[in-house]
Amino acid sequence: MAFFNFYKNTFKHGIHPPESKDETNGLPIRQFPFAPVIILPMAQHIGAPSQIVVREGQEVHRGELLAKAGGYVSVPMHAPVSGIIRKIGNVPTISGKMSPGIFIETFPSSTQEVLEGKPIDPDTATSEEILQGIQDAGIVGLGGAAFPTHVKLKVPEGKKCETLLINGVECEPFLTTDHRVMLEQESDIFTGIKYLLKATGAEKAIIGIEANKQDAADFLAKHIPKELPVSIKVLPVKYPQGAEKMLVTSILGKEVPSKGFPIEVGVVVVNVATTAEIGRLLPHGRGIQERVITITGPGVKKKGNYLIPVGTPLRFVLEQVGVDEEISEVYMGGPMMGVAVSNLDISIVKGTSGILVFTKKDINESSKIYPCIKCGACIDACPILLNPSKLGILAKFEAYNEMALDYNLMDCFECGSCTYVCPSHIPLVQYFRLSKRIVRKREATKKEEVNA
Amino acid sequence: MLKKTLHISSSPHINKGRSTDAIMKNVVWALMPVVFFSVYSFGLNSLLVILTATLASVLTEHILCKLSKKETTIADYSAVITGLLLGLTLPPSFPLWMAFVGGVIGIALGKYVFGGLGYNVFNPALVARAVLQAAFPVAITTWHPAFLSDRFSTISQSVFTWPFMQPQFDAISGATPLSAFKFDGITTPTLELAFGQISGSTGETCAIIIALGGLYLIARNMMSWRIPVAVLLSAFVLSGALYLINSDIYPSPFFMLFSGGLMLGAVFMATDMVSSPITPIGLWIYGSIIGILTIVIRLWSGLPEGVMYSILLTNAISPHIDNVIRYRVYGTNRKTKVA
Predict the structure, then answer these.
(1) Residue B115: closest CA among chain A residues belongs to which residue?
(2) What is the torsional sign of CA B84, B85, B91, B95?
(3) pLDDT at A355 exceeding the cut of 60
C-alpha cells in the first residue's frame, strides 16, 4: 500500500510458487559425458552472432577459438570439446529460427584438456583489460538472459558504480544451479568478485541469497577473503526477486527508473554463476566451454546438477539422464520464465540454466478460461505495480497504444506472476509479450517513416 | 531414441491452481448457512422464494447463452449466486411469480446485457431487487413475522398469487426493525438483531451467520476483507458520531450495524468482485462510501432501508475509483495517465 511504504528487505508484491528444489539442491555438480557430436549455434547471446573463424575439416582443441565476437555487443565462441569440424551450416535454435552454427565430431579418446590462454592478473590489470578479458572469454549472463557481461559491466560516462550486487537469488522454482555453484565454487566466486570490483570501480559487493539457501549463505560467509569488501544479505523467499530491478530494491531499497538500468542508481548486478565463471576462466585466459545445468522435473529419471559442455544436443542429454515414456513438455529454464522446447535437436547454450521435463499427467491441460472477474489477484502479484487486469482487457481489444501510453505496458518485464495467480486462467503475460512486440514494431515503422 | 510429440506453451508453465468457478462455488457454500437459517426462521415460504429466484436466474442464464449460440455458463455458479442473493433480499411471503421475474431481470438486465460474467457494472441481484421494488412496492415491503409456529406446515396464500395479479396478504404481518424505527420510533434490542429473532427479508435477519460466511470466504482468500470492514466501520463511525451528538433522535450504532440488510450487503453484495474496484485503496474508498450512504439514506430519506441503493450507486462509480486510484508504477513518478 502506498501509505505504508517502508522498506522491509524485499520488493512489493510478488508471488510464492512451490519451490520444488528439494530433489536436486542436495546433489553435487557432476561432469556430464561428452556427446559424440556437438552442435554449436553462433547466436546464443543477445546481440550480434559470433563470426566463425574455423573451416570444415579442421581439428580443434578444447578451448580453442571457433568464432570471434561479431561486434561490441557480442562475444566469441570457444570449442567445448576437442574434435574435428564436420560441417558449418545452419542449426536449429529454441526460438524456432535457424542460426549459423558449427558441428564438431568429438574425438572419443581425447583427454579433453583445456587450452591455456593469456592469464589476466586481477591485481595489475586495468578495468579495460578485465572487460576485454571477460568478452574474450565469451562470458554472457548465465542466469538465463545471456546478455554479454562486458557490456553490462561497462559503466557509462558520468555514472558511477557504488555497489556490485551478486545475484544468488535463484527465485525460479526447480532450479538449483546457483545454489550448488555457491556451495562448491566459493573460491571462483570470490576471485570473480575481485575482477568485477576492479572492472566496475565499485567499493563493495553484496551477495543476495534467498532464505531457502541459508546453507549457501552461511558457507560463503565463512569463506569471504579478508581483503575483499563483500557482505551477504539473506532475503525472504519470493518470486521474482532474482530480477535485477527487484533485487536492487530488495537489497538497497532503491528503485531503478523505468526503462533504465541499475547503473542509474549506482548499481551493477551480476549473476553468481557468471561471477564464478569469470573467476575460473580469467586467471587462465580461457573461454567458456561448459556450464552447470539443473535437470529435473517429474519426467526425469536421474535428476541432478550437471556440468554440461555448451553445444551438447538436448536429445543426447535427455537420453543420458533417462526420461519418462510419457514426456509431454520440455522447458529450458525454470517453469516461470523458461521456454518450451519444440524440437529435441536443439542444443544446450550458454543461457540454459535448467532443463525441466514434464509428463502428460503433470500438465493441467485446457484449464478453462473465464472472463476477468476483477478479483485483483494480479494487482497484488505484479512486482512493478501495473494493472494486469486492465491491460489484459485492453489487449483483447487490441488497444496497444493505450496500453503503452496510459498503463505502462513497456515496463512489464514478463515475469509471469499475473498469469500464475489468475483464477480465470487468462494468459495475461502472454498477451503482454505479444503487445510489447507490436508496440515496438509500430515505433520502428514510425521511425522509418520519419527518416524516409 | 526419443520420438515424442512435444507440447509447447508460452511461459509461465505453472499455475496457482485456483479457478473462478471454485471461488464462486465457495461463495455458494458460504451462503448456505444463511439460507438454512432463513428457512428455519421463516419456514416453507422462505424456501420457496429462494428456490424460485435461484431457478429463474439459472434458467435465464442457460436460455440466454443458448439464444446467443454460446456454450452455457451456468457451470460457473455465478447465476446461482445471483439467484440466492436475490431470494435472500425478498420478504418471506413474496409472491413466487414476482420472485421469478426478479431472477430473470437480474440475469438478463443486470448481467447479460453488459456481456455476462465479468462485465456487469452493477450487482445483478440488486438490479433485480431495485426493479422489483419499483414494480411491486407493496409486496416487497409487506413483511412476514419470523418463528410462527405453523411455518413448516402452511404456506402463505400470497406466495401462490397468480402471475400478474396483486397478492392478498395474510392478516398477520410484521414490521422490520428499521421501518419500526423509521415510522414509529421504536428501536429493537441489538441482541435480537444479531441473532435474527426479527422479521425482515428472508436472508438478512441473522447478522452473526452472515458474518461467519464472510469470515470463511476471507479465510480462504476468496473475498476482500477490506470491503465489509470498510462498509461496517464507516457506517458504525458515522452513526456512532450522530448518536453521541443526539441519542434521542439517532439510534445506536449497534442497531444500525445489525439491522436491515447492512450485514448481508456488506458481506455478500458489496464484495461482488466484478462491480467493485480493484486496488486495495480503491476498495477502502468504495466500502466507506457504501457505509456512509446507507446511514444517510436510512436517516434522512423517505426509505427505511438504504443498503441496496447505496451499493448500486457506488457500483456505478467504482470504475471511476479505479481510474483515479492507481499504484505508482515501479521506477516512475506517475500514477495517473498522461493525457
Answers:
(1) A371
(2) negative
(3) yes
ipTM of the complex in this document: 0.86
Do B332 and A329 count as a contact with CB atoms less than 8 A apart?
A: no
pLDDT-derived band at A3 (thresholds 50, 70, 90) equals very low
Q: What is the mean pLDDT of each run of 10 residues along chain B (339 residues)?
A: 72 86 92 91 89 95 92 89 94 90 94 90 94 89 77 76 71 68 73 72 80 93 93 94 88 85 91 92 95 92 85 94 89 58
Task: Identify the three-state secondary structure at position A417.
Answer: helix
- Picking from B2, B278, B328, the nearest residue to A389 by CB comes out as B278
Looking at chain A, the domain(s) classified CATH 3.40.50.11540 span 127-284
Among A124, A121, A61, A135, CA closest to A287: A135
Q: How is residue A373 written as a grid cell? A: 472477474
Angle (CA) B281-B329-B275 rounded to 5° is 40
In CATH, A127-284 is 3.40.50.11540: yes
The secondary structure element, H or E, covering residue A223 is helix A214-223
User: Rounded distance, CA A164 to CA A206, Å?
Assistant: 6
What CA–CA distance (Å, rounded) separates A424 from A165? 37
- Can you tell me the distance from the alpha carbon of A90 to that of B339, in angstroms, rounded to the nearest whole number? 48
Taking the Cβ of residue A406 and every Cβ of chain B, the question of whether any pair is shorter than 8 Å is answered with: yes
Residue pair B192/B251 in contact (Cβ under 8 Å)? The answer is: no
Supply the pTM of this predicted model. 0.89
* Rounded-to-integer distance, Cα A317 and Cα A32, Å: 8
Cα angle vertex A99, ends A94, A100, to 5°? 145
Which chain B positions have a beta carbon within 8 Å of A319's beta carbon?
Answer: 1-2
Per-residue cell: A7: 522498506
Tell me if B44 sits within 8 A of B151, measured CB to CB.
yes
Radius of gyration, CA atoms only, chain A: 22
User: DSSP assignment, residue B269?
Assistant: I
Mean pLDDT for the stretch of residues A87-94: 91
pLDDT at A421 over 90: yes
Report the C-alpha gap between A83 and A108 in whole angstroms.
8
Closest Cα in chain A to B281: A1
Q: Residue A325: pLDDT above 90?
A: no
Q: So what's the pLDDT on residue A60? A: 92
- What is the set of domains in chain B, with CATH numbers? 20-323 (1.10.3430)
What digits encode the pLDDT tens for the residues A149-176?
Answer: 999 999 988 899 999 999 999 999 999 9
d(CA A76, CA A49): 9
Query: Nearest CA to B272 among B104, B23, B38?
Result: B23
Question: Is B11 in Cβ contact with A258 (below 8 Å)?
Answer: no
Comparing A90-94, A263-267, A322-326, B18-22, the range with the smallest average pLDDT is: A322-326
- Looking at residue A263, what is its pLDDT? 93
- Closest residue in B to A259 (Cα) is B331
A114 neighbors A64 (Cβ within 8 angstroms): no
**A372 interaction partners in chain B (CB closer than 8 Å):** 118
Q: Select from B144, B142, B147, B198 the least CA-distant residue to B40.
A: B147
User: Nearest CB to A373: which of B8, B118, B281?
Assistant: B118
